[in-house]
Amino acid sequence: MKITDLEVMRGFIRLCDDGFRQGWHERNGGNLTYRLTPEEVDACNPWFVQGRPWVSMGVQAENLAGEYFIATGSGKYFRNVSLAPQDNICIVEINAQGDAWRIVWGLEKGGNPTSEFPSHFMNHSVRAETTGGACRVIYHAHTPSLIALTFVLPLTDRDFSRALWKSATECPVVFPGGVGVVPWMVPGGAEIALATCELMKKYDAAVWAHHGLFCSGPDFDTTFGLMHTIEKAADITVRALSCGQGIRQTISDDGLRDVAKAFGVVIREEFLD
After folding, report:
1. Which of 67, 93, 116, 231 is the catalytic position?
2. What's the chain's average pLDDT?
3. Structure confidence by residue, pLDDT tens digits, 149-171
4. Which residues touch 189 (CB under 8 Å, ≥6 apart)?
5. What does pTM read for this prediction?
6. Which of 46, 118, 160, 167 could form a disulfide with 233 if both were Cys (CB 3.0 to 4.6 A apart)?
7. Residue 116: active-site member
8. Percent of the chain at pLDDT above 70?
């Protein structure tokens, strides 16, 4: 048996492959992290290498001290994860202070976890606190239709949430809380990390203007499903707008309320008229 035979590793690798096949990960674009459960850490432990140096993150989250994360590698390609996971992903341990990581498995040909790891880490901290520890996945992808909408829609939470909800009936069911929107910022820095953290206190997903989408969830299927649904909703909106007739009819606000009621979810009322 290999570590990559474990269910958690198979799920991580599958999500990477699914995202690439959707066309969301050109070159080394995008990143994925997963916070392991204690049981999963125990299962992975026989393959861990000890004694590697700690690397400071420049950020700190005490509620994640001692945790372990699977992460895609910096500069690595999603298309290669399923072919050679040991060279393209890694497992990192967080120190007792919650401000540094060290690799305990993976990236056998060298490298570091994704350059967005500090941003992922801080958002894991926020989502873990907000969800009582249920959230374990943070996923960032370059979703083209959603990126296209950031050039034509007002960059507000309300405008994006309404446009996406009204594109397809399932949308208010899948993300009734809506989505947040981060204006364009240089990726990988503290500014975009902090801005995203503020949004992730309220939302499961954040749009990065002219860049992509940042999603969170309790497991791989839920998180990928959220990303997939939002991007499909954006694609429908782009197609409708491209017909050149304008939007002639769509789901009414009362219709959105009725869908939410029928499926037992609480829609963000402040975004409705």
Report:
1. 116
2. 96
3. 999 999 999 999 999 999 999 99
4. none
5. 0.95
6. 167
7. yes
8. 100
